[in-house]
Hints:
There is one protein chain. The chain is α/β, with parallel strands linked by helices and about 350 residues long. The protein has two domains: about 1-65, Alpha-Beta Plaits; about 85-335, Aldolase class I (TIM Barrel, Alpha-Beta Barrel), CATH 3.20.20.70. The chain has helices at about 10-25, 110-120, 145-160, 170-180, 190-200, 215-225, 255-260, 270-275, 280-290, 315-335, and strands at about 1-5, 25-30, 40, 60-65, 85, 90, 95-100, 125, 160-165, 180-185, 205-210, 235, 265-270, 295-300. The strands form three sheets. Strands 7-8-9-10-11-12-13-14 form an eight-stranded parallel beta barrel, surrounded by seven helices. Helix 3 links the parallel strand 8 and strand 9. Helix 2 (about 110-120) packs parallel to helix 3, helix 2 runs parallel beside helix 10 and helix 5 packs across helix 6. The chain is elongated, with a radius of gyration of 21 Å. The two termini are about 40 Å apart. Manganese (II) ion binds near residues 103 and 310. Phosphoenolpyruvate binds near residues 129, 133, 185 and 238.
Amino acid sequence: MIIVMKGGIPKEHVHNVIRTIEELGYQSHVIWGTQRTVIGAVGDERGKARLHSLEVMPGVESVVPILQPFKLASREFKSVSSVVRVGNAEFGGGRLAIIAGPCSVESEDMVMQLALLAKEAGASVLRGGAFKPRTSPYAFQGMGMEGLRLLAAARDATGLAVVTEVLKPEDVDAIAEYADMLQVGARNMQNFALLKRVGEVGKPVLLKRGMASTIQEFLMAAEYILSEGNYNVVLCERGIRTFETATRFTLDLNAVPVLKKHTHLPVIVDPSHGTGHWEYVSPMAKAGIACGADGLMIEVHMRPEIAVSDGIQSLKPEVFRQLMQELAPFAQAAGRSL
Ligand code: PEP
Ligand code: MN
């Protein structure tokens, strides 16, 4: 339910409504507006009719249901697009946010060189996995805590914000000490314990779409994080499984306008995992911007031929630099800047 307050009322009326919502056993989520304030009341769907009675309280203009199952993520609740700030980067504003870096953190030199490259080319966030979700238990599992320290050193040297993946709820606190943004990967999109934990911690979250998840399931996963009071969620379309085998996944760019229609959360595109091959990354990066994405996540490696993970889809430095230059007119055509 959304409780829409009248304009120009004392704050006390808002607080009284919040108190009553909570007494009825619902959570309240407030959007303080300059014109008017709205309060989302979420919780057990069965008894929500009781919330209708709040219409008689002083200052309340109307009580309307949120029809979508993802309540707080919906544009019904918040019609204005959200901007998520991570360091100096802004997701969802007029400027595109570009995340770049290696699939895995592999060594000190490598992370530092890639961070300098990302910065110089115009990216605002450095990526790199320290804890890796691998299909095979025999594959490189990541450098762990040491990888986090290397990412933090690269941030100190460049001023770039850092995003890295978290695999388990019990690792969230430790990773949040080093990272500016926590990535929940495709394989964990429905790890509900993890979603709740990153919601509680309150750091910005990069939530990647599960490779076999519908758009609605994706938004319900985001709702888990929002319902814990963390509204700093950025959604990432990273490709889904289809019958097609010519590419690693099928980058579902339909998801971008669909998500933008239904949610106020920023949406970015990952053409690296979405295609699985470096030659397809630049065209699909441009397509992602053209269809309205708020940013991109691109895997880059100094020497993809020796990368410990995802070398085939990683851009070489010169290809990444060229892509960044070529993106500008696409950004402009989409009403954004780079
Ligand atoms: C990654 O970003 O390195 C990654 C593992 O992505 P995904 O979860 O989308 O597969
Ligand atoms: Mn990868």
